[in-house]
Design a protein that fits this description.
Helix content is about 45%, strand content about 20%. The chain contains six helices and five strands.
């Protein structure tokens, strides 16, 4: 199998270690570039909220209910932290001699991972499978299961403890 690029779907949690080790082994064996992809949830759509709420953001110290602008600033701060953490992972892999690119994307995880794999011409996707109980699977679904149905290339599912 000739694979020039591998997409690695990272969640930026401690459990990513096993996932990254598997991706690193595959990249070295195949001489492939790594694309580290972290998907953040899409921004909530606050239909009908007046635009002045955006212009006058509430802060957590205010005695008023926090609204849309505060929610957006919290989401933006989380995205910045995720970007920084993703870049740190990329830098660690580069220091180990691997070619890696970090991508932070917004949207439904399985759909966006498959879309990016297509766009980047990846020949392999590496994703973690969290070992949740039945209730967790029912509540959260399974990104890896959805991805197996929609992926444009082979998917390596790495079991990770959660």
């Amino acid at each position: 199998m000739s694979v020039a690029a591998i997409l690695v779907a990272v969640e930026l949690v401690e459990e990513d270690r096993a996932l990254l080790e598997a991706a690193e082994l595959q990249a070295r064996a195949l001489g492939a570039k790594l694309y580290l992809v972290h998907v953040v949830p899409p921004e909530a759509d606050f239909v009908g909220l007046p635009k002045e709420a955006e212009a006058n953001p509430a802060s957590p110290d205010d005695d008023v209910e926090v609204g849309y602008a505060y929610d957006r600033s919290v989401a933006a701060e989380r995205a910045r932290a995720a970007r920084d953490e993703l870049h740190a992972v990329r830098d660690r892999l580069a220091a180990a001699g691997l070619s890696a690119t970090a991508l932070l994307i917004e949207g439904p995880p399985a759909e966006k991972i498959a879309e990016e794999a297509r766009r980047l011409g990846c020949g392999l996707i590496v994703v973690g499978a969290h070992q949740r109980g039945l209730l967790g699977k029912w509540l959260h679904g399974s990104t890896s299961r959805e991805l197996l149905q929609d992926a444009p290339c082979p998917v390596l599912v790495v079991p990770v403890a959660s």
